[in-house]
């Protein structure tokens, strides 16, 4: 029960009734040595609990913890600021790389288009040469058949 008295909240109604019963018992004169020792021990536990509670609520300790928390918060905000700056730099570098890649892709497309155009010209020339070859073979065949060659 002593540990319940030392909890964060105040005493429960059950604890208050128990203490009231003890007070009534003491007032009736039915005090024994065991009861006196038990009450003395409980009073000591309550005093220890109050001392711990007072220590945790010590204004200087709270200010010290708050200052430490504020310093940590400032450190984290500074770190976040550095990360945001790094992110901005990386975004700018990424944009530059994307622009460079876009330019390179345009250059490659131009080269590919040029190669395709050249290939189309070669095919057209090739088709003309094949047609000329067919025409020349036909003439050669006719010439050989006529004996006029």
Walkthrough of the structure:
There is one protein chain. The protein is an all-alpha fold. The protein has a domain of 57 residues. It has four helices and no strands. The longest helix is centred in the C-terminal third of the chain and has 88 residues. The termini are far apart.
List the helices and strands and how they pair.
Blueprint: H1 2-5, H2 13-27, H3 33-56, H4 59-146
Which secondary-structure class do the elements indicate? mainly alpha
| Number of E strands | 0
Instruction: Give the uncertain stretches in residue-range form.
Output: 1-8
- The percent range for strand residues is under 5%
Helix amount: over 70%
Question: Rough shape?
Answer: rod-shaped
Features of the shown structure:
149 residues, mainly alpha, rod-shaped, 88% helix, disordered N terminus
Could you provide a short overview of the structure?
The protein is mainly alpha-helical and 149 residues long.
């Amino acid at each position: 029960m002593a540990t319940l008295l030392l909890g964060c909240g105040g005493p429960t109604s059950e604890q208050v009734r128990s203490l009231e019963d003890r007070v009534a018992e003491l007032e009736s004169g039915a005090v024994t040595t065991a009861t006196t020792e038990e009450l003395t021990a409980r009073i000591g536990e309550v005093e220890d609990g109050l001392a711990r509670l007072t220590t945790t609520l010590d204004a200087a300790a709270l200010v010290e913890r708050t200052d430490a928390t504020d310093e940590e918060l400032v450190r984290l905000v500074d770190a976040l600021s550095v990360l945001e700056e790094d992110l901005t730099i990386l975004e700018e570098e990424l944009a530059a790389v994307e622009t460079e890649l876009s330019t390179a892709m345009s250059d490659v497309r131009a080269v590919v288009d040029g190669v395709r155009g050249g290939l189309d010209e070669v095919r057209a020339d090739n088709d003309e040469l094949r047609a000329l070859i067919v025409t020349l073979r036909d003439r050669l065949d006719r010439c050989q058949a006529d004996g006029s060659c």
